[in-house]
Design a protein that fits this description.
Number of domains: 1
CATH topology: Lysozyme-like
CATH architecture: 3-Layer(aba) Sandwich
Strand order of the largest sheet: 7-6-8-5-11
Largest sheet: 5 strands, mixed
Number of strands: 11
Structural class: alpha/beta
Order of helices and strands: EEEEHEHEEEHEEEHHH
CATH class: Alpha Beta
Strand content: 5-15%
């Protein structure tokens, strides 16, 4: 989590969630080392998430492509709303926090399986939402947008897709940025044209709300020591960057990361009309 929620009681560290599909058991092997000692983290536990609990198992798809309060240089892409994937809004305890604008869009992958049907995408997103909120103690799902392998765009964190909502997606650089997570593991899979086009469309629109060139770059200041940068360090980032550019992680996977130049080109072309 970010902002005032970062130190809230019950906030826990954790891995990325792993989508299994239907399963009736789980086996986990964990190894750890601290100095010369073999040691595991205190309070280690496995979170089991049933995405159908408390929500419709097959929610209807509500979409929006309405005009926003701030004019962008490109049209808003069609987005499946939170009600469309079945978000349980009663679990979101606090209203959204807002920053100033969106200077960078970070691309992520969820690092789960690629063996899912696009009809299962709402289930996967509900599972991520429940894991972030109930497992890790966050206020809401961390990502602003999610994209499935068919190129469908989903609304993530609540507060308004055209607003600069503070998310929890690139620790140290959550302020004035937006995160788009592609469902799947893109160390394993190659991205498809619909995925690249969807990520580019979201990025071109979000950056266009503030007049930023999707092919450009910007200097941001790290807000925390995050293992890659120190608090207060000035960092030059592409307007469309990968999670690994701001944080020590493999995300968004080697294949999707290699596609970012093409995604920037698509987004810049959209901004150019």
């Amino acid at each position: 989590e970010a902002g005032s929620d970062a130190g809230a009681g019950g906030v826990r560290a954790g891995t990325q969630p792993l989508w299994t599909g239907p399963a009736d058991g789980v086996q986990v092997r964990v190894t750890g080392r601290h100095g010369r000692l073999s040691r595991l983290p205190a309070g280690l536990r496995v979170e089991l998430v049933d995405p159908a609990s408390g929500t419709a198992s097959a929610p209807s798809y509500a979409t929006t492509a309405t005009a926003t309060a701030t004019a962008s240089t490109v049209p808003q892409p069609v987005v499946t709303t939170r009600s469309g994937w079945g978000a349980d809004e009663s679990l979101v305890k606090d209203p959204a926090t807002y920053t100033t604008d969106t200077k960078v869009v970070f691309a992520h992958h969820t690092a789960g399986t690629n063996d899912y049907t696009c009809e299962q995408s709402p289930d996967i997103i509900r599972a991520i939402f429940l894991y972030h909120v109930q497992g890790q103690g966050w206020n809401d799902i961390g990502y602003h947008f999610l994209v499935d392998k068919c190129g469908t765009v989903f609304e993530g964190r609540a507060g308004g897709i055209d607003k600069p909502v503070l998310g929890a997606q690139t620790y140290g650089f959550n302020t004035d940025t937006s995160g788009v997570a592609v469902l799947g593991n893109y160390n394993d899979a190659l991205s498809s044209p619909p995925v690249r086009e969807a990520v580019a469309a979201v990025a071109a629109w979000k950056l266009g709300l503030y007049g930023y060139d999707a092919a450009g770059s910007v200097v941001l200041t790290a807000a925390a020591d995050n293992g890659k940068y120190t608090k207060g360090q000035k960092v030059t980032l592409n307007r469309i960057s990968g999670h690994r550019d701001g944080y020590p992680t493999e995300c968004p996977g080697n294949n999707l990361y290699a596609d970012l130049p093409a995604i920037r080109t698509l987004a810049a072309a959209a901004q150019a009309g």
